[in-house]
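note to self — DONT lose this again. spent like an hour looking for the file last time. sequence + predicted structure for the chain T wanted, 239 res
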Amino acid sequence: MNFETPVEKKRKWFPLVVSAVALVALLGFLYSFFHPAPPRPLLPPEEFEDKMKQVSLDIPKLLQESEASLVTRCIFSFKESRVQVPYHRRKRFIALTPEEETILGQDSIRQMEELGLFYQDDGDAVRVENLLSKLAPVLGEGHQEISYRLAYTSEINAMSLLGGPLVITKGILQTMEDAELAFVLAHELAHSLCRHGGEDLTKSFAVKAFGGLLLGDAAKLKKSADLKKAVMLETFHIL
């Protein structure tokens, strides 16, 4: 009688198992190749707006500065922090430095990334970058590098974040011709170049800060739901 040892049995069945696994993998690949999964549906505008409302900025924490210090900055750095708007030379007070605006803008990008709002598409990216390359020379020195992200929503919109990044929705890319889209991008780049986000945020912060000093705990910055809403609306310059 011919007895097979356990090792010999494993050696006998191992090639068959490997072949079966390889066959299943090949069939799965062929099926996915000829029957690609349908693209995920675009976020409707209402759902996109709901997710955007979840993006908030804890300014004291992000800037590693106490609320009292930020209030003091608003009070005593008014003269030093007045800067000119490019081109028309209007002077305005911005409490945040460009570096601080970049920190806040990048944190907004991080939160939007975690919420799954962005997507990647080579065709859309090439189109956007082609238009931005034509607009960049107008911005002047120091503003040639333009960062952007694509938002996966049917909402027709574009926005500029603190520090300069642009967010461009799939909806606006599907709706507008290149000339129309270039106009919108130029509008958003003007917000970034003129630091309108930092200016508007300074106004909101100053109002709430001085309100906290005058009215007490009820109007303090950290506890103010109104400011959180204002931060969201004024950080994202909605089209």
